[in-house]
Amino acid sequence: MPKSKKIIFAGAGKMASAIASGLISKGFSAKNISAFDKSESAAHKFKSHTGVQALVASGITEKLKKAIAASDIVILSVKPQSIHEMTELGEFFKNKFIISIVTGIPLKTLSEITKSSRAVRVMPNTPALIGEGISAYAHLAGISSQDIKTVEHILSSFGECCLVEEKLMDAVTGLSGSGPAYVFDFIQGLTDGGVHAGLSRDIAFRLAVKTVEGAAKMLLKTGEHPSILKDNVTSPGGTTARGLSVLEKGSFRGLVAEAVTAAAARASELGNIKK
Questions:
Q1: Are residues 249 and 219 in the same domain?
Q2: Could you write out the three-class secondary structure of the chain?
Q3: Do 64 and 131 lie in a common domain?
Q4: Residue 2 domain-assigned?
Q5: HSE-CB for 242 with a 13 A CA cutoff
């Protein structure tokens, strides 16, 4: 993506900040990035975290019009419940390249709101805040190969990315979008268990975090199926077998799968929010 491209964020929350920081870390000029938000607090935090100026805009102002007009790419990063507030800016977004990270909002709705046929729907996740995100994206039919290269360049600045069909975006939301929270909860459970078994909380937490990190890296490096690696560490009648039996009694994997589908269903509900 040419570094002369100008990007404006519609919404200056944490994920917008992560994306802006990722771009800047890859050599994109902060001078070519701007943002606006109706929250003065969000705009201030965005500026303090990225060094990028963020406008406080609760309505359409001449300054906001000029900022949007000067941009090549608009990244929609508002809450799903606020997406229809962007409708009044549609005439200014028209023909811009639109990248949306708004949970659950379909491409058809994005195109109607922004009056642009160049729209991409993205589901990032919070590890993007440390440059370790994984994002899936879907795009409108007929979008140019250059636009696809541009969005992949942006998403790669804070992690990895993959292309999926739009009908799968809610599933992505339930898995990788919400997934970090499931992992954090699991780590908390491991830590609590360690404390109950006699470890200090600091040691238990460190062991839990590094265990999850190491197991994930092992999966990536070996390419083995999780069940094979699980069996490799499970001896008949051993400690791991005893622990796994407790997880199985509680339908651990089934509950995790159910959490993913429940979150995916909620993403679909958010996409149906009316103005």
A1: yes
A2: CCCCCCEEEECCCHHHHHHHHHHHHCCCCHHHEEEEECCHHHHHHHHHHHCCCEEECCCCCHHHHHHHHCCCEEEECCCHHHHHHHHHHHHHHCCCEEEECCCCCCHHHHHHHHCCCCEEEEECCHHHHHCCEEEEEEECCCCCHHHHHHHHHHHHCCEEEEECCHHHHHHHHHHHHCHHHHHHHHHHHHHHHHHHCCCCHHHHHHHHHHHHHHHHHHHHHHCCCHHHHHHHCCCCCCHHHHHHHHHHHCCHHHHHHHHHHHHHHHHHHHHCCCC
A3: yes
A4: no
A5: 3
Q: What is the pLDDT of residues 3-18, one digit of tens each?
A: 679 999 999 999 999 9
Is residue 232 one of the residues assigned to a domain? yes
CA-to-CA distance for 41 and 59, rounded, in angstroms?
A: 16
112 vs 57, residue with greater confidence: 112
Domain limits at 116? 7-167
| Residue 48 burial (C-beta neighbours within 10 Å; 0-12, 13-18, 19+) | exposed
**pLDDT per position as a tens digit, 117-173:** 999 999 999 999 999 999 999 999 989 999 999 999 999 999 999 999 999 999 999
CA dist 234 to 213, 231, 245, Å?
Answer: 19, 5, 11
134: which strand partners? 160
Percent of the chain's residues with pLDDT above 90: 81
Mean of the per-residue pLDDT values of the chain? 93
Contacts of 243 (CB under 8 A, 6+ apart): none
CB 43 within 8 A of CB 15: no
Predicted pLDDT at 246: 97
